[in-house]
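Supplementary Methods S3. Complex input for the guanosine-5'-monophosphate-bound model.
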Amino acid sequence: MAGKMVIFSAPSGSGKTTLVHHLLSLPELNLAFSVSATSREKRPHEVAGTDYYFLSADEFKARIDAGEFVEWEEVYKDVFYGTLNSEVERIWSDGKHVIFDVDVVGGLNLKQMYGNRAMAVFVKPPSIGELKRRLEKRGTETSEKLQFRLDKAAEELSYAPKFDQIIVNEGLEQAKIDAVKLVRDFLNK
Ligand code: 5GP
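Predicted complex, serialized as structure tokens:
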């Protein structure tokens, strides 16, 4: 079986991580999560090696220089995120399809690299106001960081038309149904 890639991108707080977890819970889709590397701080509920590989900024830079990343970005100052070559290889050699939860630019870069082998899905929050409410409820950001994320989200929304598919997350249950259908159709193609 030739492995494929499913890329979920969205402004943070759009619900994409929840959708990705839902897809991963369905064994018939045969998906495995591409664990990204990051130099940001670990949040209390996160598990190293499962949610992210947490690296220092220096370690991250050294691995960029060593050519270990398929794609990487400095999303916030000194905060790097990236996909390791070894992740994609590990998952494909296990006979699974890769699913990514990456930001908008990373998602488009992956799509450009892998073409028809990849499907890029943009998850859209219903509005910026709703996104603000969700991020406040999540409570993981200081107000300064929250504003930064909201400004970034407004910019990221303009990338939606470049994606293969768009899911508008007005309600999680419907968004889950939409996501499963898109992924199933793509993998069966
Ligand atoms: P968070 O800090 O909320 O976990 O993620 C911040 C942003 O970085 C999100 O939009 C997330 O999807 C993105 N991100 C996570 N992993 C990667 C990656 O491997 N590459 C890129 N380009 N972005 C990523």
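The chain has a mean pLDDT of 93. The chain has one domain: 5-187.
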